[in-house]
Amino acid sequence: MQDLIALQRWLYEGMASGLRDVASGSWPALAAAMAAAVLFGILHAMMPGHGKTVLFSYHLGQKGSLLSSIANGAILALTHVGIAILLVLAGFAVISRAFAYGGRTPQFELASGIFVVLIGAYLIWRAVSRAAPEGAECQSPQKGRTLAFVTGLVPCPLTTFIMSYALARGLLAAGLAVTVAMAAGMVLTISAVAVLATLSRERLLSFFSRTEGARRWLGRTLEIGGAVLVVLFGVWLILGAQTA
């Protein structure tokens, strides 16, 4: 873990150095900064947080396609970064409050947590009350997209720092390019987590395919268990916002 943190720090310094060089008139340095940002995004998304737990829990419990897993990972990551960009563009008066919490925005964490709990509660109710056998229908993609979006409503603190750093030097375009590159790296990692959950679910169910009763029980258990984990993650967000 320490090696991963050290590598992230090195890549982050590479991004900052690239932006400084761009400010000095060396636009080719932007390409190097963007390359470092992609790698940084991949590694940064491996660290705790970023909604990976809720997305993994959802796709482990809900039947869905690999394409929907990738799409939901992209929605979560892009929302996570996009909200931070919008906050910075909204003005430094807004961002100054975020810096007071070390880059965190408790209001967004609270709102996101409430929405996540509500969606998780609905998934539990649906799993318990639905009479259709496991595997008879595929979960509506819209619910997964909604969950990914509300989970991503918590802004990325590093994006606020990068964009604020760039804006302070009059480098809006360069700052956007670097943060978009970082978001692309985060999409790769978060989508991979969602795909892993989907494949794990399929593997587990196929293992019990010869015993329909056991397969149905496992499917229902995964569905309820995944929904419970979604609720717990939402509660964790709410509690974290209250203690910020």
TrEMBL record:
Keyword list, A-Z: Membrane, Transmembrane, Transmembrane helix
BP GO annotations: cobalt ion transport; response to cobalt ion; response to nickel cation
GO CC, alphabetical: plasma membrane
Annotated InterPro entries: NiCoT_RcnA (IPR051224)
Keyword Ubl conjugation set for record: no
Transmembrane segments: 27-46, 66-95, 107-125, 146-167, 173-196, 217-239
Example GO molecular function: nickel cation transmembrane transporter activity
Name the record gives this protein: Nickel/cobalt efflux system
